[in-house]
Specification:
- By secondary structure, the protein is of the alpha/beta class.
- The chain folds into 3 domains: 100 residues, Cobalt-precorrin-4 Transmethylase, domain 1 (3-Layer(aba) Sandwich), CATH 3.40.1010.10; 100 residues, Tetrapyrrole methylase, C-terminal domain (Methyltransferase, Cobalt-precorrin-4 Transmethylase, Domain 2, 2-Layer Sandwich); 178 residues, 3-Layer(aba) Sandwich (Rossmann fold), CATH 3.40.50.150.
- Helix content is 28%, strand content 28%.
């Protein structure tokens, strides 16, 4: 073992570590890892470095030491599955690192349950990285890595609180995998929500034949979003806007976001999409933040800022939606369009005649189409019903 970095997956217990990996550990000059993993090797005679928080500082120190020392880094489970291995690329060259894989806690759990896992969607809440609760429930089978802040039982309770119809869905809590206190607890989400578990836990949502109210919908009800009176892209318009944006993996902007309904719904439909939502009004920004939190979306970032000042600092986007801009609408649209990736789309909505006239003359070489949407909604009139019209909305689509 020459000077450099070897990252070693420890699986779920000392018994998972191969003789080859154990030999590299004992021959190292420096051994780094969490305290629980370091305790696997009381016979190690070199320097030990405990990795807690502040991982960047530890990796910088290990990089310095690796020039003249053999470094072994211990990782729980598999180093490249929500592990430290993914963080090393920003600190070390590929030629400086060796990675020895191992079984992940998730794989171990499925083996214990004698259940296939190729059809499972994987999530983690480690480090506050909450995934969409809606997406967890919409997957046929979901495995969610939990931590001491949001344990598996607390997550079960939160799912039931947000989506009451999922209370009867069967699930499994797996905790302390590979340890003496290993335990599997099966039951409905409602039952599991009352269980007291620790931070080393996984919640597994099992397939269900029933329907839950987290169903995927293009055009979520306006009532699902906190918003100022009428300051929201209504559900029918939102559905058309999202279809015109041509969503996919990458970056989307929601400019003049208000409640953030367009960007938030896009993020629920496309978990690999990173949404940057910009809103300058303080009251609307509060609604935007609340909606991001309520939908539990780690892939939406909010900016309380002026659109024209913020656009230059945003990452280039594949999709941009502009739902507000007032007198600056043309300047916002043109400035945003310049930050689109080739093939990307800009979609702008307009209600006022002046705004529509401005957009008709905007970016003419890249104009794709304009779509006018008029919605009439049923309304009670005594014991009868009538159709009440809403303001028509024009949708302008441009492509780079």
């Amino acid at each position: 073992m020459t000077a450099g970095i070897t990252v070693i997956g420890c699986g779920v217990s000392p018994e998972c570590i191969s003789s080859q990996a154990r030999d590299k550990i004992l021959r190292a000059d420096v051994l780094a890892g969490g305290k629980r993993l370091l305790d696997f090797f009381p016979e190690f005679k070199g320097r030990k470095i405990v990795i807690r928080s502040g991982i960047a500082e530890v990796l910088s120190e290990l990089k310095r030491l690796s020039k003249n020392n053999r470094i072994a880094i211990l990782a729980s489970g598999d180093p490249l599955f929500h592990g430290i291995g993914a963080k090393l690329s920003s600190h070390f060259k590929e030629s400086e690192i060796e990675i020895i894989p191992n079984i992940s806690a998730m794989q171990y759990m499925f083996a214990k349950l004698k259940m296939p896992w190729h059809d499972t969607t994987l999530f983690t809440v480690h480090g506050g990285k909450l995934a969409s609760y809606r997406n967890m429930l919409n997957s046929a089978k979901s495995a969610i890595y939990c931590d001491d802040k949001l344990t598996a039982s607390r997550l079960a309770a939160e799912l039931v609180r947000r989506f009451p119809s999922c209370a009867g869905r069967n699930a499994v809590i797996a905790e302390n995998l590979g340890m003496p206190k290993e335990n599997f607890f099966k039951g409905t989400l409602k039952k599991l929500s009352r269980y007291k578990d620790g931070g080393l836990s996984i919640l597994l949502l099992l397939p269900t034949d029933g329907l839950v109210d987290s169903s995927i919908a293009l055009g979520l009800d306006d009532a699902e979003f906190a918003h100022e009176s009428r300051m929201i892209t209504h559900s029918e318009v939102r559905a058309v806007v999202i279809s015109k944006l041509r969503l996919g993996h990458g970056i989307m902007w929601d400019i003049g976001a208000a409640s953030g309904s367009v960007g938030i719904e896009a993020a629920t439909l496309c978990p690999d999409l990173q949404v940057h939502a910009v809103e300058s009004d303080p009251k609307r920004f509060v609604h935007l933040q609340k909606n991001i939190q309520d939908f539990s979306l780690p892939n939406v970032k909010a900016y309380k800022a002026d659109a024209l000042k913020t656009i230059p600092s945003l990452p280039e986007a594949r999709s941009i939606f502009v739902g507000g801009g007032g007198k600056d609408i043309r300047q916002i649209a043109e400035k945003a369009f310049r930050r689109l990736l080739p093939g990307g789309r800009l979609v702008v909505t307009a209600v006022l005649l002046e705004t529509k006239a401005t957009l008709t003359k905007c970016l003419e070489k890249n104009f794709v189409e304009a779509v006018s949407i008029s919605v009439s909604r049923s309304s009670k009139l005594g014991s009868s019903r009538l159709m009440k019209s809403e303001n028509s909305v024009d949708i302008f689509v441009y492509q780079k």
